[in-house]
From TrEMBL:
<feature type="domain" description="NAD-dependent epimerase/dehydratase">
    <location>
        <begin position="158"/>
        <end position="369"/>
    </location>
</feature>
<dbReference type="InterPro" id="IPR019587">
    <property type="entry name" value="Polyketide_cyclase/dehydratase"/>
</dbReference>
<dbReference type="InterPro" id="IPR001509">
    <property type="entry name" value="Epimerase_deHydtase"/>
</dbReference>
<dbReference type="InterPro" id="IPR036291">
    <property type="entry name" value="NAD(P)-bd_dom_sf"/>
</dbReference>
<dbReference type="InterPro" id="IPR013549">
    <property type="entry name" value="DUF1731"/>
</dbReference>
<dbReference type="Pfam" id="PF01370">
    <property type="entry name" value="Epimerase"/>
</dbReference>
<dbReference type="InterPro" id="IPR023393">
    <property type="entry name" value="START-like_dom_sf"/>
</dbReference>
<dbReference type="Pfam" id="PF10604">
    <property type="entry name" value="Polyketide_cyc2"/>
</dbReference>
<feature type="domain" description="DUF1731">
    <location>
        <begin position="413"/>
        <end position="460"/>
    </location>
</feature>
<dbReference type="Pfam" id="PF08338">
    <property type="entry name" value="DUF1731"/>
</dbReference>
<protein>
    <submittedName>
        <fullName>DUF1731 domain-containing protein</fullName>
    </submittedName>
</protein>
Length: 463
């Protein structure tokens, strides 16, 4: 049996700058916080021995006492480094490769465990090493570029709600592209991203700081997770967590010396309500739909009056990625045999792969969708940030069952799902509402989806 994870990130840096950090295995903990200590005995060369231990307070001491040394199984200066460590009945291989591409370097990390206990060791030893790969890469960029990173040139992209899943992905992508990024944070924490203190409610020193920037882009992703029971109190909380930060940003922008060059405002396809009808950006959403649709209407209304040269509102579908919270919840249920259709199974599911969302966000910020790809001029106004092929729930659940390797799944009728949602502390409408949104604006702009079909998105997550 084999457990493996592979992930890649492009850096606007030459390979030798990254290699200077990678070959220093003792610096591994500086860019991967899951590693507590690491060292190679003697000079770095193929066949050299070394040791590493996790930073986890329980697994770290256990690993130091019981784990054998690793061996440098591959050492190609400037290109490839691999560390192989014996495991009971098998081994763990950690491999880093660098490849010159598009005036920069493609960094790839592979972690592979084999043997009869590979799945168990994958959860305890492998998964922590690969978790938050995008943030690992942002740290690696900071370390590799430290010698000539003056930190105060070029446009600043400020992200509200940056500590969430999408904000971290986008910020890390921009940092590795050599761009300045800062988070607006209520409680600044240790991070590879600059953090600017704010309260998310009113203008303050943070707004003066942003107003002094020569060129500014705003990305507003602020808002607590939708994954909570749909009580009136929770719906009010969902709306206020979105509208208050948005109004604070809008108010602050009116005092800036110059408008924000770009403003990317997050919204959601939930504004279209529960319907089997197909919606694109030209279709007016219902004005009286209750629940989550009402929350999103208030969210979008809050951005009115923003001082920006170009304002784009992303009505985003469910974002699919292996580390996304929704995938963790769905895969846990499917592994227990609950991967059958939810409700009727005919309700529409609007989604987008995380990589395509980041590429679309870059386009909305006036950047190439990715290194080596052309510019796509996304017009201002509403944009459905969704795959061009929404799917029905029964197809989603079939892919999910294949993904977790459980061929059969018990269906969950709507009544049972609503009862289970009470226990799971979630909103059943997230699964039972039908939303069929299509990205007409992105397609007409010439945006090319890497993952237009659900099958391709699941293949990427499985890789």
């Amino acid at each position: 049996m084999t457990w493996h994870r592979t992930a890649s990130q492009w850096f606007r840096l030459p390979a030798e700058r990254l290699w200077d950090v990678l070959e220093r295995v003792d610096r591994w903990p500086e860019w991967n916080p899951a590693v507590g200590q690491a060292a190679v005995d003697g000079p770095m060369r193929e066949g050299a021995a070394g040791r590493y231990s996790p930073s986890h307070r329980l697994l770290g001491p256990l690993h130091r006492r019981t784990a054998p040394s690793f061996r440098v199984s591959a050492f190609e200066p400037g290109r490839r480094l691999a560390l192989e460590q014996p495991q009971p009945g098998g081994s763990q291989l950690i491999e880093w490769t660098l490849e010159a591409r598009d005036n920069g370097t493609l960094f790839t990390q592979r972690v592979t465990l084999d043997g009869p206990l590979s799945q168990q060791f994958g959860l305890t030893a492998g998964e922590p090493l690969v978790r938050d790969f995008s943030t690992q890469c942002a740290r690696l960029y900071r370390l590799s570029s430290a010698a000539d990173d003056d930190g105060d040139s070029g446009a600043l992209t400020v992200v509200a709600g940056g500590t969430g899943f999408l904000g971290t992905l986008l910020a890390a992508n921009l940092v590795c592209d050599g761009r300045r990024v800062a988070f607006l944070a209520r409680n600044p924490q240790r991070s590879p991203f600059e953090q600017i203190l704010w309260d998310g409610r009113q203008a303050g020193a943070w707004s003066e700081r942003l107003g002094a920037e020569a060129e500014l882009a705003v990305v507003n992703l602020a808002g607590v997770s939708l994954d909570m029971p749909g009580t009136p109190e929770n719906l009010a909380r969902l709306e206020s967590s979105r509208t208050e930060p948005t109004r604070a940003l809008v108010e602050a922008s009116r005092s800036w010396r110059r408008p924000a060059a770009r403003w990317l405002q997050q919204s959601a396809v939930g504004i279209y309500g529960d319907s089997a009808e197909e919606f694109d950006e030209r279709t007016p959403p219902p004005t009286a739909a209750p629940g989550l649709a009402a929350v999103v209407r208030g969210w979008e209304a809050a951005v009115d009056g923003a001082n920006a040269d170009k304002l784009t509102v992303f009505r985003t579908g469910v974002v699919l990625a292996r580390e996304a919270a929704l995938m963790n919840r769905l895969t846990a249920i499917a592994r227990l045999g609950g991967g059958g259709p939810l409700g009727s199974g005919q309700q529409w599911f609007s989604w987008i792969h995380a990589e395509d969302w980041v590429r679309a966000a870059r386009a909305a910020l006036g950047l190439p969708t990715a290194p080596g790809e052309p510019y796509v001029e996304v017009p201002q106004g509403v944009v459905n940030a969704t795959s061009p092929h929404p799917t029905q729930n029964r197809e989603l659940m079939a892919h999910l069952r294949e993904y977790v390797g459980v061929p059969l799944g018990i269906p969950a009728p709507a009544g049972l799902l609503r009862a289970a949602a009470t226990v799971l502390r979630t909103n059943p409408d997230l699964a039972l509402d039908s939303v069929r949104a299509v990205p007409t604006v992105l397609r007409e702009a010439g945006f090319a989806f890497r993952y237009p079909q659900l099958a391709g998105a699941f293949r990427e997550m499985a890789a």
